[in-house]
Amino acid sequence: MALVKEVEMKISNHALLYKRILQLKTVSKKVVMCYGSFDLYHIGHVDFLQQAKRFGDALIVIVTDEETDGTYIIDKRSRMILVASHEHVDFVSEGPIIDVIGLIKPDVVVTTYSSNNPPHTKLPEIAIKIKEYGGKFVTISKKHNISKSDIIGKILITQSI
Asked: Which residues, at least 6 apart from 36, have a Cβ–Cβ distance to it below 8 Å?
């Protein structure tokens, strides 16, 4: 139970997150942000977070509810706790990514290509918001070809046998 409490300390509302990030920026720490639904947390998510952290000193992860189909297997609070448990993650929050980017103004925003999360060339509002304050938008490639849909498909196949 103590581990969950420790992990939950990484989870912040926007006001607290802003204060924490402001402290980091005053000592010239590079802030990185990434986002996603992180539903059915898997090895692809773990690798993505590890890669994202390499772009700076502090990694903020925004857990969103912006999937195209809007269906989630795991509730948002549980997804936030799972993400916060990753050793490379410093802070976790929620909300529409465009709003959080506007508030925090991270040095780097990292994304990866998937059918639910196209590269930044197809997300012009995010690219514009980052460009407004001089941030950097990075798209990294996946090392693991796995997704929530793949996992669900495998479950359905095994259940139909």
From this structure: 45, 48, 61, 63, 64, 117
Task: Name residue 61's amino acid.
Answer: V
The predicted-structure confidence for 25-67, as pLDDT tens digits, reads as follows 999 999 999 998 888 788 888 999 999 999 999 999 999 876 5
Domain boundaries, position 85 = 2-159
- Cβ–Cβ under 8 Å, residues 33 and 103: no
User: What total of structural domains would you count in the chain?
Assistant: 1
Residue 117, pLDDT above cutoff 70: no
Domain CATH for 25: 3.40.50.620
